[in-house]
Amino acid sequence: MQRFFNPSLQSTEPVTYGQITLGSVSKAIPFKKTPDGSHYFLFMRLIEHPEFVKEGARLVAERVKELGLANPYFVTPEASTITLAETLRDQYNIDGRIIFKTIQSDDVDPIEADYSTITSTTPKKLYLGKNHVAEMQNKDIIILDSICTTGGTIGGVYQLLAKAGIPVSRIVEATMLFVEGQDRSNIEVAEGVQLKLHRFNLLPFIPADQMRCASIASPSATV
Q: CB-side exposure of 8: number of CA atoms within 13 Å?
């Protein structure tokens, strides 16, 4: 664990860094407190780290091949994964759709789903125009995101797809670059409904009262 003082912050508390590893890429990332002050997490906007985007796309493409999906299609919530989605389309010919948190100009009769996350203080919504649903039919869908902590975003996407009439049997798994805190192989996406969860690495999610004595180390990747 490394501690550095960041003069741009309006606090005398030193900034704590932890190492994030994804495949062959590793980088020091700062910890940040959750809005309620209960935990520390490694704060990373994937869109700001092209090296993680490139490596993440490679790993996701390998995972799709490993699953043997006949008609792979990803669904991913904005905004951190936008560049990941573009890379999967352009370099690996894997199609998919970005789900937005605001209604888009081309959305017709949009469907919405509510969700919340531990790293935000306000509930959020996801939207999908009914005119975009046809392209998802008969596809093998993976819900794709950068980081899963409590699974709130995954659940929101799952419920949006269900509302859109996508057969839940076509939703193969949630594929995450990282899972924070408790490791798991399944995630509850609706009451009594579990979805398979695959991650490439595990990140710490540390209670605030344990942060000072925590030994920060990135767990080994599963790839």
A: 0
Q: What one-character-per-residue DSSP string does 84-150 give?
A: HHHHHHHHH--EEEEEBSS--TT-SS-EEEEE--TT-SS-EEEEE-GGGSGGGTT-EEEEEEEEESS
Reduced to 3 states, what is the DSSP secondary structure of residue 209? helix
Q: Using one digit for the tens of pLDDT, what is the confidence trace for 36-80?
A: 899 999 999 999 999 999 999 999 999 999 999 999 999 999 999
Architecture of domain 45-202: 3-Layer(aba) Sandwich (3.40)
What does the domain layout of the chain look like in residue ranges? Answer: 45-202
In this predicted model, what pLDDT tens digit does every residue of 98-108 receive, in sequence order?
999 999 999 99
**pTM, full prediction:** 0.88
HEC string of 160-178?
HHHHCCCCHHHEEEEEEEE
Residue 223 has pLDDT above 50, yes or no: no
AA letter at 45 = R
Place of tokens 């991913």: 76
Q: What is the mean pLDDT of residues 115-120?
A: 80
Contact 146, 60 (CB under 8 A): no
